[in-house]
Design goal:
By secondary structure, this protein is α/β, with parallel strands linked by helices. The protein folds into two domains: 6-157 and 321-354, Medium-chain alcohol dehydrogenases, catalytic domain (Quinone Oxidoreductase, Chain A, domain 1), CATH 3.90.180.10; 161-298, Rossmann fold (3-Layer(aba) Sandwich). The protein contains eleven helices and 17 strands. The strands form four sheets. Strands 3, 4, 5, 8, 9, 16 and 17 form a seven-stranded mixed beta sheet that branches. Helix 4 (158-170) crosses helix 5 and helix 4 packs across helix 10. The chain starts with 5 loop residues before the first strand and ends with a strand. It binds zinc ion (2 copies).
Length: 357
C-alpha cells in the first residue's frame, strides 16, 4: 500500500484552541508500526487535555490529541514480527519506559519516567502524538489484534473497559458472589457493570441520577438500579445487602458526593475502587474507612495488560461497547463533536471520530 506523505490531524495550539491542519505522516521507529486510524473516541480526559493540558504534554502547535483509537497497520519497523501489515488493531494508551521500578513490576501506567520520551515513555494523545489524525505511530507494546467480529467503532471502548478491569484487579480481582455497588452510569460505570456481571458478582447495583443511563445499565446487566434523586441510596443498598453494605464499591462518578456515598455504602472490611477523576478537591469522611477497615484503591488508566484481557471478554460476548456509542463525526467536524460530547446533546455518551472520512 502506498503511504501518503501528508495527513490531516487535530493539533493543540493553546488551551481551548485546537485546529485541524495538515501534518507529515510519521514514520515508525524499529519497534513501532504506522496505524491508519479508522476510529478515535472522545473521552473526558481529552476535554481535560484541551482545557488544562497534561503534565509532559507535547509542545503547543505540534501536539496531536486523541487517545482511544483503532485502525489498520500499514507499515512497520525492522524488529516488528509480532504484527503484520494489514492487521486490524486497537491501541492502549500507555507505553512505559520499561526500565523503571514500576514498569518492571507491570505498573507501566504509573511509569516513573512518565512523559520522558528520551527514556522510551509514550502516552499517545496525552504526552505524545495521538489519534485525532489519519495516521499515528504506536509501539508494539500498545497494540492488540482485533477479532474480525469486533468493529473499529466498538473497539474504542476497550480502554474504558481496561481501566475498570484494572481497578477490579488491583482491589483483589476475585469477586464471585460479591455484591457490587457501582456509582455513576457513565461509560466507566456501564463498563464496570458489565464486568462485575461477567466476573460472577452477586448483586450488581448501579446508582446515578439519569434514568436513561440507569435503564441502559439494567439492560447491560445491573440487577438493581437506584436513582438517588428519587430514592435514598443508603436505605436501598442496606435493603439489598441484608443491612451489610456492598462488598465492593466502584466509584465511577467523580462527583462532589460520590466518595462519601461509597464510604457510607461499603460493607465493613469491604473495598472501594476509585475509577473517576475528580474535578476539584473532594471532602469525604475518610474516618469511616479507617474505623471499619475499608480499603480504598485507585488506578491510573489501564495497566497490567488489562486492555488485552478486556478485549478477550468483548470477543467472547461477555461485555459490549456498542450501546455506549451514540454519535459519529468526520475529523473536520471535531469541534462539533466535542460540543456534542461536553453538552451531552441528544444523550451523547461515546462520540466517535472517523479520521478517514
Ligand atoms: Zn480516555
Ligand atoms: Zn517506567
Amino acid at each position: 500500500m502506498e503511504i501518503p506523505k501528508k495527513m490531516r490531524a487535530a493539533v493543540l495550539y493553546d488551551f481551548n484552541d485546537y485546529r485541524i491542519v495538515e501534518r507529515d505522516v510519521p514514520s515508525p521507529g524499529p519497534d513501532e508500526v504506522l496505524v491508519k486510524i479508522d476510529a478515535c473516541g472522545i473521552c473526558g480526559t481529552d476535554v481535560k487535555v484541551i482545557t488544562q493540558g497534561m503534565p509532559n504534554m507535547g509542545p503547543m502547535g505540534e501536539f496531536i490529541i486523541g487517545h482511544e483509537y483503532a485502525g489498520t497497520i500499514i507499515a512497520k519497523g525492522d524488529t516488528v514480527d509480532e504484527f503484520d501489515i494489514g492487521n486490524r488493531v486497537v491501541v492502549e494508551i500507555h507505553k512505559g519506559c520499561g526500565r523503571c521500578r514500576n514498569c518492571i513490576m507491570g505498573q507501566y501506567t504509573a511509569c516513573l519516567n512518565y512523559g520522558d520520551t528520551s527514556k522510551g515513555h509514550r502516552a499517545n494523545g496525552l504526552t505524545t502524538n495521538g489519534g485525532f489524525a489519519q495516521y499515528a505511530v504506536n509501539h508494539v507494546n500498545t497494540l492488540y489484534n482485533l477479532p474480525d467480529h469486533i468493529t473499529f467503532d466498538e473497539s474504542i471502548t476497550i480502554t474504558t473497559a481496561g481501566t475498570c478491569l484494572y481497578g477490579i484487579d488491583m482491589a483483589g480481582g476475585y469477586i464471585p458472589g460479591d455484591n457490587v455497588l457501582i456509582i455513576g452510569p457513565g461509560p466507566i460505570g456501564l463498563m464496570s457493570t458489565q464486568l462485575a456481571k461477567a466476573l460472577g458478582a452477586g448483586k450488581v447495583i448501579l446508582s446515578g441520577t439519569r434514568d436513561e443511563r440507569l435503564e441502559l445499565g439494567k439492560k447491560l446487566g445491573a440487577d438493581y438500579i437506584i436513582n438517588v434523586k428519587k430514592e435514598n441510596l443508603n436505605d436501598r443498598v442496606k435493603e439489598l445487602t441484608d443491612g451489610l453494605g456492598a462488598d465492593l464499591v466502584l466509584e465511577a462518578a467523580g462527583g462532589k458526593e460520590s466518595l462519601q456515598q461509597a464510604l457510607e455504602n461499603v460493607r465493613k472490611g469491604g473495598r472501594i475502587v476509585i475509577l473517576a477523576f475528580y474535578k476539584d478537591k473532594v471532602c469525604a469522611d475518610i474516618s469511616l474507612a479507617v474505623k471499619f477497615g475499608v480499603n480504598i484503591y485507585t488506578v491510573r488508566g489501564e495497566g497490567n495488560m488489562s486492555v488485552g484481557r478486556a478485549l478477550s471478554l468483548m470477543s467472547q460476548g461477555r461485555i459490549t461497547g456498542k450501546p455506549l456509542l451514540t454519535h459519529y463525526f468526520p475529523l473536520d467536524k471535531l469541534h462539533e463533536a466535542f460540543k456534542t460530547f461536553v453538552e451531552r446533546t441528544d444523550g451523547a455518551m461515546k462520540v466517535v471520530i472517523h479520521p478517514q472520512e
